[in-house]
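Anyone up for a design puzzle?
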């Protein structure tokens, strides 16, 4: 089987070399670029399965490169951004990036995100629409008829309470539920001390469905209000 090719683009050569080591250990081929122009040239000449690209680079930055890539290519893109570049990170996602990793990053987390995006893009060709028994957002899929949860095709084991909380939120993607509302719907009783009880279960759900529970992609806190599941379109973050 031919190796999947990952294009890594960052003007910091040490970061590129470090990423190459970890991806190579996982069996990926790695192509390197050091600015947006080099990345675009590479994409014209080689088959690439996924792009990892920094935001701040000389000649052409990552944001402009993403915009050019998305003119005619659908492959997954992961943005690298420093903590001080939150605005650029959001802009990158809006321009068409699929995910982001914040510098300094854990290389194992980056590898996990690469695997996740490649699985998700593989699934898109055969993805089916939601049905009354199937709910999805991004790579998160719930088959309520089978009581089955998968993330990017990988099964997730939840307790009955965790499953019911996740199902409630996923059925109502984008809607914010308070702790009291979640408690009353799931436990079927008055919400007394609901905040801490619901928070513990939400934390456990995040640990099972998120690559990095501290920067969740799916299950978000709306501070002072409650919780929601993001409504993520295929190929978007």
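Challenge accepted. My sequence:
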């Amino acid at each position: 089987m031919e190796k999947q090719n990952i294009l890594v683009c960052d003007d910091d050569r040490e970061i590129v070399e470090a990423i190459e080591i970890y991806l190579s250990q996982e069996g990926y081929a790695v192509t390197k670029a050091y600015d947006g122009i080099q990345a675009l040239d590479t994409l014209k000449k080689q088959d690439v399965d996924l792009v990892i690209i920094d935001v701040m680079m000389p000649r052409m930055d990552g944001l402009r490169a993403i915009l050019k890539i998305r003119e005619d290519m659908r492959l997954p893109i992961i943005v690298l951004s420093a903590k001080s570049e939150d605005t650029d990170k959001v802009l990158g996602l809006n321009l068409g990036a699929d995910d982001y990793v914040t510098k300094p990053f854990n290389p194992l987390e980056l590898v996990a995100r690469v695997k996740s995006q490649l699985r998700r893009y593989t699934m898109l060709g055969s993805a089916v629409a939601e049905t009354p028994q199937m709910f999805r957002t991004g790579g998160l899929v719930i088959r309520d008829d089978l009581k089955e949860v998968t993330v990017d095709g990988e099964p997730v084991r939840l307790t009955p309470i965790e499953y019911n909380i996740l199902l409630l939120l996923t059925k109502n993607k984008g809607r914010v539920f308070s702790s009291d509302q979640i408690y009353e719907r799931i436990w079927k009783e008055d919400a007394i001390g609901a905040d801490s009880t619901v928070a513990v279960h939400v934390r456990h759900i995040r640990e099972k469905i998120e690559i990095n529970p501290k920067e969740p992609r799916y299950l978000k806190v709306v501070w002072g209000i409650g919780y929601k599941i993001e409504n993520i379109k295929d190929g978007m973050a």
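A detail worth pointing out: Helices lie at 13-25, 36-45, 62-69, 86-95, 107-124, 160-171, 179-187, 194-209.
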